Amino acid sequence: MQIVRFTSPLTGADAVGIDDGEQVVELSGITTVGELLGLPSGEFRARCEGADGPRHASAGVRLLPPVDGRMEVWAAGVTYRRSREARVVESERAADVYELVYDAERPELFFKSAAWKVSGDGGRISARADSEIDVPEPELGLVLNASGEIVGYTVVDDVSSRTIEGVNPLYLPQAKIYLGACAVGPAIRPAWEVSDPYTLDITLSITRGGETVWDGKANTSQLNRRLDDLAAYLFRADVFPDGAVLATGTCLVPDLPFTLRDGDTVTIAVSEVGTLTTSVVRGLDAMR
């Protein structure tokens, strides 16, 4: 089962439904993912399992990013040893910052994107025009309801400028938050259908001109944090009435000086969750 946001073939309006791989069944009375995430986990599950709205062939449905309305995307940093090592390398003058946060009780959390800026499967991501080195960061995303409960999982690409962040950690918002820096999708896998979120394979493949120029594989067993702890810190002093997506950190980082180029294709897969594919453009004008 996948929870999908899509364009209804009947009305042309955005809709939310359940995709079993053959057909999508709309959720009657639910028009946004945010509305669904406003429900307690038990009611959330009951609504998904009891979908009874109009039905559409899966192949004929155009998927949209599974975030909308007042939903926000946040991200956790330095949660895998590999990400700690990469950020130490790119930020030699501030290496201690990343060493300390890896082992600290409090995780690094940062705002990533408003829902309307998020790209979906088949969409575009961007390398900044004022940056020399930009990379995708493949991450397992937690889908959190308004109560902070983990009700699902999705795939997130936390696109980042290593050039900008490497100059000064205080530039992280500019390195992480811009149009084309966040992709989520293709759907939401219900949490009750994922047997163990700490044993999921994450793969990243980057192709250029039909050739693979970088690929790698890791596993969420390498995560240095508990997923429920990350969610709890996000909700500790904030509210998300339409829920949120929390990316849990990257474990696959291309070595320097690799960078994304215009025309590249980025494919991220998380086992049991889904595969997110996007194309790369360079600069703001190409994203408009």
Characterization of the model:
This is Fumarylacetoacetate hydrolase. Belongs to the FAH family. It comes from Nonomuraea diastatica. The chain has 288 residues and is α+β, with helices and mostly antiparallel strands. It has two domains: 63 residues, SH3 type barrels (Roll); 216 residues, Fumarylacetoacetase-like, C-terminal domain (Fumarylacetoacetate hydrolase, domain 2), CATH 3.90.850. Helices cover 20% and strands 36% of the residues. The chain is built from eight helices and 18 strands. Strands 7-6-16-10-11-13 form a six-stranded mixed beta sheet. The protein is globular and about 55 Å long. The chain starts with a strand and ends with a helix. The model has no long low-confidence stretch (mean pLDDT 95).
Relevant terms:
globular, 288 residues, SH3 type barrels, metal ion binding, Fumarylacetoacetase-like_C, five-stranded antiparallel beta sheet, Fumarylacetoacetate hydrolase, domain 2, alpha+beta, 18 strands, six-stranded mixed beta sheet, 2 domains, hydrolase, Fumarylacetoacetase_C_sf, Fumarylacetoacetate hydrolase
